[in-house]
Amino acid sequence: MDDYDVYIDDLFVEDKPITKEKMIKILNKEIRIKSSLANTAKGIEIDVLPEWEKILLEDGSILWSYEKLGWKVMWYNKEYQTRPTRSWLSFRNSKSIKKEK
C-alpha cells in the first residue's frame, strides 16, 4: 500500500462566511453552466449548501427575484432512510412550463 503525505496547505478552507451576494453569483454561474436543462421536467438542479439555508430562509427576495426574471423556482428537501437529506433548488423556464400544460 502506498503512503501519501497530506499537508494542511493542500486543503481549501473558506474562511469568510457566505454572503447573499456571493450566493447569488454562485447560483447565476450554475444556471449559466446548466442552462440547457432549463426546459426539462426537473429543470436546473442546484444543491443547497448548509450555509445557504439561513440566508434563503431569512431573505425570500433572492428566490423572488429569479421568479420576476421568468424562472419557476422551487426549494426541495428530500429525506432518505439510508442516506443524508438532500436539499436543492430547481430552476425551470416558466414559459416552457405553460407549454407542458
Your description of this structure?
38% of the residues lie in helices and 20% in strands. Strands 1-3-2 form a three-stranded antiparallel sheet. The model has no long low-confidence stretch (mean pLDDT 85). It has one domain. A hairpin with a 7-residue loop joins β2 and β3 (86-93). By secondary structure, the chain is of the alpha+beta class.
Key traits:
single chain, about 100 residues, 4 helices, 3 strands, globular
In angstroms, what is the radius of gyration? 17 Å
Structural class: alpha+beta
Stretches where pLDDT is under 50 for at least 5 consecutive residues are none
Individual helix count: 4
Domain unit count: 1
Strand content: 15-25%
Q: How far apart lie the N and C ends? A: 58 Å
The main sheet orders its strands as: 1-3-2
Approximate helicity band: 25-40%
Q: What is the chain-wise order of helices and strands?
A: HEHHEEH
State the shape. globular
Give the arrangement of secondary structure elements.
Elements (H helix, E strand, L loop, with lengths): L19 H14 L10 E4 L2 H9 L2 H8 L2 E8 L7 E8 H7 L1
Antiparallel strand pairs: 1-3, 2-3
In short:
This protein is of the alpha+beta class and 101 residues long. It contains 4 helices and 3 strands. The longest helix is centred in the N-terminal third of the chain and has 14 residues.
